[in-house]
Amino acid sequence: MHQVLIAIGSNHHQSAHIQWASERLSVLLGNLQLSRKLWTPDIHSSGQWYMNRLAAGFTDLTADEIAAQLKEIEAAAHRSKQCITLDLDLMQYDHQRHHLRDWPRPYIQLLLPDISIIPYEETD
């Protein structure tokens, strides 16, 4: 089993889409943990507000298979460039971090304490 951390965000019908994604992830991942929901302004200063949440759980899938499943969930929510109904990013797979530019973002750092994940270990 592999532990994963997934970032969830939405800027359109935020609460409904975050709940819908959380339900889909509960089917995809074992022992699902969900952080609280957090409102944040768009990082590009568009004036739009996002609702964000982190999810952690376990899976037998590879990192590529999980990423493909996340893209399918986004597509099912009718995501477009203008309307981010759902943004699902695989942030960590076991000890390997992904989306490295997103890790320092305040909403990620604020939500991390809400869930238990395998500590990240730096490698040389």
Beta content comes to: 25-35%
How far apart lie the N and C ends?
25 Å
Write the H/E string, N to C. Answer: EHEEEHEEH
Structural class by SSE content: alpha+beta
Overall 3D shape: globular
| Average residue-wise pLDDT | 89
Largest sheet: 6 strands, antiparallel
Low-confidence stretches: none
CA gyration radius, whole angstroms? 14 Å
Percent helix among the residues? 25-40%
Tell me how many strands there are.
6
Q: What is the overall number of helices?
A: 3
Describe the fold and architecture:
This protein has helices at residues 14-28, 63-76, 106-111; strands at residues 2-10, 30-34, 38-41, 49-59, 87-93, 96-97. Strands 1, 2, 3, 4, 5 and 6 form a 6-stranded antiparallel sheet that branches. By secondary structure, the chain is of the alpha+beta class. It is built from 3 helices and 6 strands; from the N terminus they run βαβββαββα. The model has no long low-confidence stretch (mean pLDDT 89).
List keywords for this structure.
3 helices, 31% strand, 124 residues, 6 strands, six-stranded antiparallel beta sheet
Give the helix/strand layout.
Blueprint: E1 2-10, H1 14-28, E2 30-34, E3 38-41, E4 49-59, H2 63-76, E5 87-93, E6 96-97, H3 106-111
Antiparallel strand pairs: 1-4, 1-5, 2-4, 3-4, 5-6
